[in-house]
From TrEMBL:
<dbReference type="InterPro" id="IPR043129">
    <property type="entry name" value="ATPase_NBD"/>
</dbReference>
<keyword id="KW-0963">Cytoplasm</keyword>
<keyword id="KW-0808">Transferase</keyword>
<dbReference type="GO" id="GO:0006083">
    <property type="term" value="P:acetate metabolic process"/>
</dbReference>
<dbReference type="GO" id="GO:0005524">
    <property type="term" value="F:ATP binding"/>
</dbReference>
<comment type="subunit">
    <text>Homodimer.</text>
</comment>
<comment type="function">
    <text>Catalyzes the formation of acetyl phosphate from acetate and ATP. Can also catalyze the reverse reaction.</text>
</comment>
<keyword id="KW-0418">Kinase</keyword>
<feature type="binding site">
    <location>
        <position position="17"/>
    </location>
    <ligand>
        <name>ATP</name>
    </ligand>
</feature>
<keyword id="KW-0547">Nucleotide-binding</keyword>
<feature type="binding site">
    <location>
        <begin position="327"/>
        <end position="331"/>
    </location>
    <ligand>
        <name>ATP</name>
    </ligand>
</feature>
<dbReference type="InterPro" id="IPR023865">
    <property type="entry name" value="Aliphatic_acid_kinase_CS"/>
</dbReference>
<keyword id="KW-0479">Metal-binding</keyword>
<dbReference type="Pfam" id="PF00871">
    <property type="entry name" value="Acetate_kinase"/>
</dbReference>
<dbReference type="GO" id="GO:0000287">
    <property type="term" value="F:magnesium ion binding"/>
</dbReference>
<feature type="site" description="Transition state stabilizer">
    <location>
        <position position="176"/>
    </location>
</feature>
<feature type="binding site">
    <location>
        <position position="381"/>
    </location>
    <ligand>
        <name>Mg(2+)</name>
    </ligand>
</feature>
Length: 394
């Protein structure tokens, strides 16, 4: 098999994360981050093996960052870059699979940008910059929402009048699709079960978190909705709240829509509950030291997560296992244990020793014998994006 090299790009409004992926190798040949773009502090940093470097690019934008990154990438893969895979947060109802980028595809992504006003314009900037720098190179868009396009209507519709769906595309879309797909497929393989005859609950727990029900390799329900705000408690996002909260905060506290959105997306979740931090490591340590806010935040996080997983189970005909992934799911034995303690009705029971002993970054089974599988499976969205991009390489 010919060795392939795919550059994976993930753009934020002022940042650009990148990794050069060779699917045959577990480590990225080069990976890095350009941040503070369009400000005097703009900087690109990257890592090749253990070697770390930084380059200041004052007021540089996404294109300037790529112009610095691309020669490094080309040098490492000896000028044999096969393509670029771009992570795009929202594909609306239009994009159900990885899509080769053309001017028409860019216009479609632009048209659905109101669904992800912070994320899609940033991805567009990155895609346009990459096309400017390498107009002849294969470029593919991989959408966070695409995996969930298999959800049945009872799972993706909100209980609001039909017109809002049919005329304005207001429905549940779901996010983190690349990760839910990757870990559910990897876990089926790990457990020697056929992907197309297996049924999983997945919990992607990072700064943003979501759950998913995956049946025969397809998403059948997920906790995030029209936006990544719906669902479980997250680092700074509230997850589910009573929709009546908007009107209440507006009438009683005179808050504007922007203020309410800021409250619910940037000041809530673990940070809001603990009054301390959105970082689970900090919260676990503070809980050990008896911090009340940190203890409460962890309790609420696990309880709400368990509730979400139990509700996802409705979508499955049988349960082959629960999968934990993401920075928290892969690393926190405490969160796994507390969450599973609420799921006895599903028959799930954790093996405390296997749970605490599992080495970082490895896949493993942590359930008690003769109970449904509980699996820790490291996610690798970059690798999945590279594999999806490779499908277009002739
Ligand atoms: P991610 O967005 O997937 O990078 O995950 C970030 C989250 O993972 C943060 O809340 C981190 O505190 C959390 N995390 C990373 N390592 C650990 C760890 N060893 N124990 C608990 N949480 C961790």
């Amino acid at each position: 098999m010919v060795s392939r090299n795919i550059l994976v790009i993930n753009c934020g409004s002022s940042s650009l994360k990148f990794a050069l992926v060779n699917p045959e190798q577990s480590q990225f040949a080069i990976s890095g981050l350009a941040e503070c773009l369009n400000t005097p502090q703009a900087v690109v940093s990257w890592k090749i093996g253990e070697d770390k470097n930084t380059l200041s690019i004052p007021s540089g934008d996404h294109k300037d960052a790529l112009s610095k990154i691309m020669p490094l990438v080309q040098e490492i893969c000896h000028g044999k870059l096969d393509g670029i895979g771009h992570r795009v947060v929202h594909g609306g109802h239009i994009f159900t699979a990885p899509t080769k980028i053309t001017p028409q595809v860019l216009s479609e992504i632009e048209r659905i940008s109101p669904l992800a006003p912070l994320h899609n314009p940033a991805a567009l900037q990155g895609m346009r910059a990459a096309l400017d720098v390498y107009p002849d190179l294969l470029q593919v868009a991989i959408f966070d929402t695409a995996f969930h396009q298999t959800m049945p209507e009872q799972a993706f519709r909100y209980c609001i009048p039909e017109d809002y769906y049919s005329k304005h595309n207001i429905r549940r879309y779901g996010f983190h699709g690349t990760s839910h797909r990757y870990v559910s497929h990897q876990t089926a393989e790990f457990c020697n079960l056929p992907v197309d005859n297996s049924h999983w609950l997945t919990a992607h727990l990072g700064n943003g978190s979501s759950t998913c029900a995956v049946s025969n390799g397809k998403s059948v329900d997920t906790s995030m909705g029209l936006t990544p705000q719906e669902g479980v408690c997250m680092g700074t996002r509230s997850g589910d709240v009573d929709p009546g909260l908007f009107g209440h905060l507006s009438r009683v506290l005179g808050m504007s829509i922007n203020e309410i959105e800021n409250l619910l997306t940037k000041q809530s979740g673990l940070l809001g509950l603990s009054g301390l931090s959105n970082d689970m490591r900090t919260l676990e340590q503070s809980r050990e030291e008896g911090h009340k806010g940190a203890t409460l935040a962890i309790e609420v996080f696990c309880y709400r997560l368990a509730k979400s997983l139990a509700s996802m189970a409705c979508a499955l005909p049988r349960l082959d296992g629960l999968i934990f992934t993401g920075g928290i799911g892969e690393n926190s034995s405490l969160i796994r244990e507390l969450t599973v303690s609420w799921l006895k009705l599903l028959g799930l029971e954790i093996d405390t020793q296997a749970n605490t002993k599992l080495a970082r970054g490895t896949a493993g089974l942590i359930n008690k014998p003769n109970t449904p599988r509980i699996v820790v499976m490291p996610t690798n969205e970059e690798r999945q994006i590279a594999l999806d991009t490779l499908l277009f390489v002739k």
